[in-house]
From TrEMBL:
Identification of the protein by name: oligo-1,6-glucosidase
Species of origin: Mesobacillus boroniphilus
A Gene Ontology cellular-component term: cytoplasm
SUPFAM superfamilies, per database record: (Trans)glycosidases, Glycosyl hydrolase domain
Chemical reaction(s) catalysed: Hydrolysis of (1->6)-alpha-D-glucosidic linkages in some oligosaccharides produced from starch and glycogen by alpha-amylase, and in isomaltose
One Gene Ontology term of the molecular function aspect: alpha-amylase activity
Enzyme class: hydrolase
Glycosyl hydrolase family 13 catalytic domain mapped to chain residues: 13-420
Lineage: Bacteria, Bacillati, Bacillota, Bacilli, Bacillales
Length: 559
């Protein structure tokens, strides 16, 4: 039976382009990461998930790979990477790499060959189709705006790209392509990595015939996600990947799966099915999106968040395992989205950290979350870099004539560059991230919000996160206790319990900037209890009611 080291671990995600620049070119790099490993060791994280560092033209900042077996020039050399792995392992930390195999870059040698002719040996590594009635083969919209098809005149056919034009989808129907991927995975596992985060891995199986998407509003293009998310052969491919590669290593896998629900997650993460260990699902990060998608802003209701997390906590209680995250390189900063990044930034960041780290599952910390980094507001669209944002702005404002102010507001709330402003190390110029000009502007609040200040301040979010991480190692109830929710309909506080044999955790979270109160149920009154962690100076015991100050978090251990 494989050891489940990943069930007790806390995982830290590094977006290398924005983490630490060592050579003054304004771009984060691998030698820069090496200089910060002691900071991460001190934080107490066990595993690093490194966003892509492979050769790439950076159309989508590394999620468009042109050579899966070499390191991107901007980020360093293979020797740098080998040293990084050694330095991580020497510190008892594990490394999982990003596996981006739903698509490659259009500059990958496979695609360069594939587009040369219809009978090229690499033709079927990708998804080519003739046009239909002088138009694209179907009406699917790209996640990055426009059509999901790009015409290539050399062979008078279109290729599929669910993401950017420079990210052609790989054809997983082709066993030769699948074998190429398995060989590449083995190449990295043989170098000693400890697992993979798998980019949109539930997109790799498409429905035969690639049918048109329903398009009731008669838009130019419509989402085809029902025909490529959780497709007909996805379980076969994942099980084959385990048989062909992963089973030979004690590697962990987390599949990024937009559109996966609890029932599917049980299939994906059921150990007996040998697919993946856990998945990133998107239900909680879609709650503040309207029918028009992520840019259609909708206020978040706490009761919706509670329903979503409760469904997933209980849904995977017996079978499978949850990943736990509130932000990453694609999502806005959690303290801005779910907390208060102004008056109660520190309190709400600690409350949200408590919320996530006391749940059942493996918690993920996105770089900067541990020091309460916030969203950013650049005055001009010209300061933004993310292809998803720029393509959307171009389509909505320049093509469709929508109000730029309204579109900018949606970018401030949901744009991916919010998470990609350089890590704020100290209050020196550019936050100590670079001695050059950063590829993306540093958030101007780096003077007050930076790691150097946080490490020195015993009451910082950073030291609070260190304690949260430490608690997971000290109390098995945090890893294995079963979850239950109290006062589910309350719109201001989130109260849940974890139970393991005779022990209980009572987790109280005030999600508002006002005083709230929790009426303690009789069965929890009069019990011996101690406070494991809280973000205010809290009183020791509790009576029949527990007052909660703005964004207050308290965790009681009851035995
Ligand atoms: O993201 C998958 C994905 O669907 C995201 O595009 C997300 O839904 C969207 O950005 C929300 O705004 C993965 C990577 O994490 C992302 O960085 C890549 O751009 C994408 O796949 C293509 O590789
Ligand atoms: Ca650099």
């Amino acid at each position: 039976m494989k050891k489940h080291w990943w069930k007790e671990s806390v995982i830290y995600q590094i977006y290398p382009r924005s983490f630490m620049d060592s050579n003054g070119d304004g771009i984060g790099d691998i030698p820069g990461i090496i200089t910060k490993l002691d900071y991460l060791k001190e934080l107490g994280v066990d595993v690093i998930w490194l966003s892509p560092v492979y050769k790439s033209p950076n159309d989508d900042n590394g999620y468009d790979i042109s050579d899966y077996r070499d390191i991107m020039d901007d980020l360093g050399t293979m020797a740098d990477w080998e040293l990084l792995l050694k330095e991580m392992h020497d510190r008892g930390m594990k490394l999982i790499m990003d596996l981006v195999v739903n698509h490659s870059s259009d500059e990958h040698q496979w695609f360069v060959e594939s587009r040369k002719s219809k009978d090229n040996p690499y033709r079927d590594y990708y998804i080519w189709r003739p046009g239909k009635n002088g138009k694209e083969p179907n009406n699917w919209e790209s996640v990055f705006s426009g059509s999901s098809w790009q015409y290539d005149e050399t062979t008078d056919e279109y290729y599929l790209h669910i993401f950017s034009k420079k990210q052609p989808d790989l054809n997983w129907e082709n066993p030769k392509l699948r074998q190429e991927i398995y060989d590449m995975m083995q190449f990295w596992l043989d170098k000693g990595i400890d697992g993979f985060r798998m980019d949109v891995i539930n997109f790799i199986s498409k429905v035969d015939g690639l049918p048109d998407a329903p398009n009731p509003e008669g838009k130019p293009y419509a989402s085809g996600s029902q025909f490529f998310m959780n497709g007909p052969k996805i379980h076969d491919y994942l099980q084959e990947m385990s048989r062909e590669v992963l089973d030979r290593y004690n590697a962990m896998t987390v599949g990024e799966m937009p559109g996966a629900n609890v029932e599917l997650a049980k299939l994906y993460t059921d150990e007996d099915r040998n697919e993946v260990n856990m998945i990133f699902q998107f239900e909680h990060v879609d709650l503040d999106s309207g029918p028009g998608g992520k840019w259609d802003l909708r206020p978040l209701k706490l009761t919706d968040l509670k329903k979503s997390f409760t469904k997933w906590q209980m849904g995977l209680e017996e079978i499978g395992w949850n990943s736990l995250y509130l932000n990453n390189h694609d999502q806005p900063r959690m303290v801005s989205r779910f907390g208060d990044d102004k008056e109660f930034r520190v309190e709400s960041a600690k409350m949200l950290g408590t919320f996530l780290h006391m749940l059942k599952g493996t918690p993920y910390i996105y770089q900067g979350e541990e020091i309460g980094m916030t969203n950013v507001r650049f005055d001009s669209i010209d300061e933004y870099k993310d292809i998803e944002t720029l393509n959307m702005y171009n389509e909505k404002v320049k093509q469709n004539g929508e109000d730029p102010e309204k579109v900018m507001e949606s970018i401030y709330v949901k744009g991916r560059d919010n998470a990609r402003t350089p890590f704020q190390w100290d209050n020196s110029e550019h936050g100590g991230f670079t001695t050059g000009t950063p590829w993306l502007q540093v958030n101007p609040n780096y003077k007050e919000i930076n790691a150097s200040q946080a490490v020195k301040d015993d009451n910082s979010i950073y030291h609070y996160y260190r304690k949260l991480i430490q608690l997971r190692k000290e109390h098995q109830i945090i890893v294995h206790g079963s979850y239950d929710i109290l006062v589910p309909e309350d719109e201001n506080i989130y109260v849940y319990t974890r139970t393991l044999e005779s022990q209980k955790l009572l987790v109280l979270l005030n999600f508002t900037n006002e005083e709230q109160s929790f009426d303690v149920p009789a069965d929890l009154q009069g019990k011996k209890n101690e406070i494991l962690i809280s973000n205010y100076e809290a009183s020791a015991g509790y009576g029949s009611a527990i007052p909660l100050r703005p964004y207050e978090a308290i965790v009681y251990l009851i035995q």
